[in-house]
Write a structure and sequence with these properties.
Blueprint lengths: L1 H9 L1 H28 L14 E4 L2 E4 L1 H46 L2 H7 L1 H19 L2 H21 L1 H48 L1 H5 L2 H55 L4 H44 L17 E12 L4 E12 L2 E7 L5 H8 L7 E6 L2 E2 L5 H5 L2 E4 L15 H13 L8 E2 L2 E2 L6 H15 L3 E5 L7 H17 L3 E5 L11 E6 L2 E7 L13
Parallel strand pairs: 5-12, 5-13, 8-11, 11-12
Antiparallel strand pairs: 1-2, 3-4, 3-6, 6-7, 9-10, 13-14
Helix pairs in contact: 1-2, 2-3, 2-6, 3-5, 3-6, 5-7, 5-10, 6-7, 6-10, 7-9, 7-10, 9-10, 13-14
């Protein structure tokens, strides 16, 4: 069982102890009926209460006190061992939940950006919020499954002792009932699987509703189409599949609950017509069969949750299989000082079901103490190139050098420490992560006033009082955080697109020159052609190729300026 294997691998000792204790609970449970039957008088016509084997306990007279003592000791043993077994496995389940989530967090943080974009945030959120919890819910049934299994074996052994024919009939009935039970359960699991697949699409649709509300409000036809063709379509798909699966599974569960009673009815009304059996033996057989119904029902009823848990576990495993880890060394390695970022023979190939895009080959340099603009029309490759330069994407071919430092798996994370980037889809955290000194606070307060944020946000111990700001204000706050990081290279992807004219002027005529004066390499993706004159060079892309590289005087520059 995949689910059980996951728990065994995580905490083998605790799982083994839980199994052992659970088996003890099952043995105690199976002994209860034999103890009661053995305590009853066997003489014909004997009265049950006619016994001299009576002792007083508290306020009660207890007949057959030796059997009673063993019976209540077994009951206490069931309570203790079953509780311990469940607690142990539930704790392991909680630990597995946290471990699975942490592993997913780490895999996300180490996965290539391109693979994360391909997989999508909706699928990841569905796995973290839905699948992990379903795995734990399924795990909670394992102690009951184990205890019921041991109890079932014990009761069947007692039936074998009472009557061989009834034993084999009970075995056949249980096998037949289990097979006929599993068929609808399998059909129900198919519907649950379809519902789980629709949950990913539903999460994506909900994300679109939240982030696209402004666009939907302005167009009724668009809003109606989105609700009917996307949001409600997936919502009702989940509902429909979950309903159908639940109907089939519920019917199967109720059928499973009656299997033992079918056996009892057959023995009491049909089997006895062909096989002679003493009344006391018949009573013992029927009591054992009646007692058999509880473990059988628990085993059958646990299977749906385990099936759902295995579906979710498969979805979690699919995440790990779909998200490769970067081979980059996690340890930061000291690099030699650099003045020029060089791209040599850079190519990047992207292909999906709908489109194919090729970037390169590209050869050019970016220097510290200069402002470089990258321009071009839609689909020219600006965003892809900027993600390669910021080391988010790994080029299909070619090499990147920070001075003498070639970017390799060994140096990738170390070279990323040179870069600070603000893309159009940036995420603004509600605090400044990492070290935050008093000097940083002084600088931040100064720039907060320059960018008119001091009346909107306050910063205390690196925590922002709010990030509920306009898009332009959020970008200005992100710019301040980026400035505090004090990196060697700054990349801005259409940063000024959401800014008022005043702040555009501030960005192009104050912030960029200031970064340049500090010796930073500044890379700007922009359509603001009236500010191109502040650039030391302008790189124009067209269909994934470099069309031209010009200085601020309009003079063409050589693509390869120096050789590494």
């Amino acid at each position: 069982m995949k689910l059980f294997g996951t728990f065994t691998e995580f905490a083998p000792n605790k799982v083994f102890l839980s199994i052992t204790i659970g088996a003890m609970a099952g043995i105690c449970y199976a002994m209860l009926i034999p103890i009661v039957i053995s305590s009853l008088p066997t003489e014909v016509g004997a009265l049950v209460n006619a016994t001299s084997d009576t002792e007083s306990f508290l306020f009660f007279d207890v007949s057959r006190y030796k059997f009673a003592s063993v019976f209540f000791i077994c009951c206490l043993g069931i309570l203790t061992t079953q509780t311990l077994s469940q607690i142990l496995l539930v704790q392991v389940g909680m630990d597995v939940t946290t471990d699975l989530r942490v592993r997913i967090y780490k895999r996300i943080s180490k996965a290539p950006i391109a693979d994360l974009e391909r997989l999508g945030s909706a699928k990841l959120m569905a796995t973290i919020t839905t699948d992990v919890n379903r795995v734990v819910m399924g795990a909670k049934t394992l102690p009951d499954l184990l205890i019921s299994g041991v109890s079932l074996m014990g009761i069947l052994s007692y039936l074998l002792y009472l009557n061989v024919e009834v034993f084999f009939y009970a075995i056949g009935a249980i096998l037949f009932g289990s097979i006929t039970y599993m068929i609808p359960m399998y059909i129900g699991s198919l519907y649950f699987r379809r519902g789980r697949d629709s949950i990913d699409k539903l999460h994506e649709a909900i994300r679109g509703l939240i982030h696209g509300t402004k666009e939907l409000k302005l167009n009724k036809a668009k809003r109606t189409a989105y609700f009917e063709d996307h949001l409600l379509k997936h919502e009702y798909s989940v509902l429909s599949n979950e309903k159908r699966g639940s109907i089939i599974v519920t019917t199967a569960i109720n059928y499973g609950d009656l299997i033992s009673f079918f056996v009892i009815g057959f023995v009491a009304f049909i089997f006895i017509s062909y096989n002679s059996m003493a009344n006391d033996k018949l009573a013992a057989v029927i009591m054992a069969l009646l007692y058999l119904s509880t473990p059988v029902a628990k085993i059958l009823n646990a299977l749906p949750q385990i099936s759902v848990a295995n579906i979710s576990l498969a979805a979690i495993n699919n995440i790990f299989n779909s998200l490769p880890e970067e081979k980059a060394n996690e340890e930061l390695i000291e690099q030699k000082n650099w003045q020029t970022l060089s791209l040599r023979g850079i190519e990047y190939h992207y292909e999906d079901a709908n489109s194919t895009f090729n970037l390169g080959p590209l050869d050019f340099d970016i220097h510290k103490g200069e402002v470089t603009f990258i321009i071009g029309g839609n689909g020219s490759g600006k965003s892809t190139l900027s993600k390669i330069i910021s080391l988010y994407y790994q080029p299909t071919h070619g090499d990147i050098y920070f001075g003498p430092n070639r970017v390799t798996d060994e140096s990738l994370n170390s070279c990323r420490e040179y870069i600070s980037a603000i893309f159009t889809d940036y995420y603004l955290f509600n605090s400044i992560l990492g070290e935050f000194s008093e000097e940083d606070q002084i600088q931040l307060d100064k720039f907060m006033k320059e960018l008119a944020l001091d009346t909107k946000v306050t910063v205390k111990d690196g925590e922002f009082s709010t990030i509920s700001l306009s898009d332009g204000q959020k970008k200005r706050l992100a710019l301040l955080v980026s400035y505090i990081e004090n990196r060697d290279m700054y990349l801005f992807d259409e940063w000024a697109a959401d800014q008022d004219p005043m702040f555009k002027e501030t960005f192009y005529h104050q912030i960029l020159p200031k970064l340049k004066a500090q010796g930073k390499a500044v890379l700007v993706i922009s359509h603001d052609d009236r500010y191109f004159d502040i650039a030391d060079r302008v790189i124009t892309l067209e269909e994934g190729k470099i069309k031209s590289i010009m200085n601020n005087k309009g003079e063409h520059l050589t693509i390869l300026e120096n050789v590494v």
